[in-house]
From TrEMBL:
GO terms for cellular component: cytoplasm. PANTHER family: RAB GDP DISSOCIATION INHIBITOR, RAB GDP-DISSOCIATION INHIBITOR. One of its GO terms (biological process) is vesicle-mediated transport. Belongs to the Rab GDI family. GO terms for molecular function: Rab GDP-dissociation inhibitor activity. Pfam families: GDI (PF00996). It comes from Vanrija pseudolonga. InterPro entries: FAD/NAD-bd_sf, GDP_dissociation_inhibitor, RabGDI. This is Rab GDP dissociation inhibitor.
């Protein structure tokens, strides 16, 4: 390993693979290494060799959580029909991840299918999320007078343009808060809940007291994504999220990136001033100017090689339940897939509860089997009980696997030592925070913002 690289990337999770692909496209000399012998990090499916075989996914899921094979009496179908995402997330059809997919042209390696419905929990039941003034009129979420107020609110957002004061209607989105905008249109707290959490996709209510512009843009993005395909604003890759890191790995390789799997990192090396100089693996040392990696390579979780670079967010642990169903989620019109958001205020919590459901339609489960994952931020000493509002919406659960995962973040921005570390994935069922981390890391590593080519963001979807 006598070569010197611009960047060494450690771990083949989605964040790391996106950055590897982007930097390779930019002409950077990239070496990508992983201690595992497969592509994918914490987000990707429970599969030892996702690039080679899918014959043992279901047994591995049971082995991981139970230490036993799948019970034959459950009749779950063929093992090879499964691809289980441990942390499922959906892609906004007009969102930043879609723009990255199109910009890098990794869409040539992927096929997508639309998520059938986007729902919100309100007053004990779920309803489809309205995304424009016409849907608001038909929505059961609001009474007659509130529907009219919501219609005016959505119409205002459709007409609003940041560079055209004539569309402001006396409201300054840069200085006035989202709470003031809700008040301007007289929207009720329940309506504010589904707009802020199921459309703007905030996971708490802190946004209400911040300038309205950011939330307005997020609602507009949701509406644009909804309009692209109709039934919901989300798409999802066939065969699961494990396809995404593999696609970006292929992109990096095409542009000269080098991949080394099954390479245990024995040390991350720094000079006298503490700046990164390279990594050592199997007795060989490779030199590089910068390193990007997931938290597990810097003291988090198992097999740490260096401490002090990451911290556990003590108040931010995620509890998730992977549930196997033999029916669609009740109230979703027999949908083959769905996202359901339970806003915090609806169940007396500080954080939202998320439900992501996929099925055989997405080539991730056997015929007539649905996978539903319920997740939220832990707030009490009995985490699994906190998922009950979501679990109770699923109907009969054939089997369930619960995990509690700490969230990690870097202790510094990496500019001083050239060590750049990604954040753990939060409980949300969409990629908003992941793309924010990608953009932030890219800017810190390169010194400039990620600029995506303006191309049509339409993806192949059925």
């Amino acid at each position: 390993m006598d070569e010197e690289y611009d960047v060494v990337v450690l771990g083949t999770g989605l964040t790391e693979c996106i950055l590897s692909g982007l930097l390779s496209v930019d002409g950077k000399k990239v070496l990508h290494m992983d201690r595992n012998d497969y592509y994918g990090g914490e987000i990707e499916r429970c599969l030892i060799h996702p690039c080679l075989t899918r014959t043992d996914v279901l047994p591995q899921l049971y082995q991981k959580f139970r230490g036993t094979p799948p019970p034959e009496e459950l009749q779950l179908g063929r093992d090879r029909d499964y691809a289980v995402d441990l942390i499922p997330k959906f892609i906004l059809a007009s969102g930043e991840l879609t723009k990255i997919l199109v910009h890098t042209e990794v869409t040539r390696y992927l096929d997508f299918k639309q998520i059938a419905g986007s729902y919100v929990y309100r007053d004990g039941k779920i309803s489809k999320v309205p995304s424009n003034e016409s849907e608001a009129i038909r929505s059961p979420l609001m009474g007659l007078f509130e529907k009219n107020r919501a219609r005016k609110f959505f119409l205002y957002l459709q007409q609003w343009k940041e560079d055209d004061p004539a569309t402001f209607q006396g409201f300054d989105a840069n200085t006035q808060t989202m709470k003031e905008l809700y008040t301007k249109f007289g929207l009720e707290p329940g309506t504010q809940d589904f707009i802020g959490h199921a459309m703007a996709l905030w996971f708490d209510d802190d946004y209400i007291q911040r300038p309205a512009k950011e939330t307005m843009e997020r609602i507009i993005l949701y509406s644009q994504s909804m309009a692209r395909y109709g039934k919901s604003p989300y798409i999802y890759p066939l065969y699961g999220l494990g396809e995404l890191p593999q696609a970006f790995a292929r992109l990096s390789a095409i542009y000269g990136g080098t991949y080394m799997l099954d390479k245990k990192i024995t040390s991350i090396n720094v000079d006298e001033s503490g700046k990164f100089t390279g990594v050592t693996s199997d007795g060989e040392t490779v030199k590089a100017k910068k390193v990007i990696g997931d938290p597990s390579y810097f003291g988090a979780g198992e097999d740490p090689v260096e401490g002090g670079k990451v911290r556990v967010l003590e108040t931010r642990k995620v509890v998730r339940a992977i549930c196997i169903l033999k029916h669609p989620i009740p109230g979703t019109d027999n949908a083959d897939s769905a996202q359901i958001i339970i806003p915090q205020n609806q169940v007396g919590r500080k954080n939202d509860i998320y439900i992501a459901s996929v099925s055989a339609a997405h080539s991730v489960a056997a015929k007539d089997v649905w996978l539903a994952i319920v997740s939220t931020i832990v707030e009490t000493s009995v985490p699994e009980r906190e998922l009950l509002p979501g679990l109770q919406l699923l109907g009969t659960i054939v089997d369930k696997f619960v995990s509690i995962t700490p969230l990690y973040e870097p202790t510094s921005d990496g500019l001083a030592d050239n060590v750049f570390i990604s954040k753990s994935f939060d409980p949300t069922s969409h990629f908003d925070s992941v793309v924010t981390d990608v953009n932030d890391l890219y800017q810190r590593v390169t010194g400039g913002p990620l600029e995506l080519k303006k191309r049509d963001t339409e993806l192949e979807s059925s």
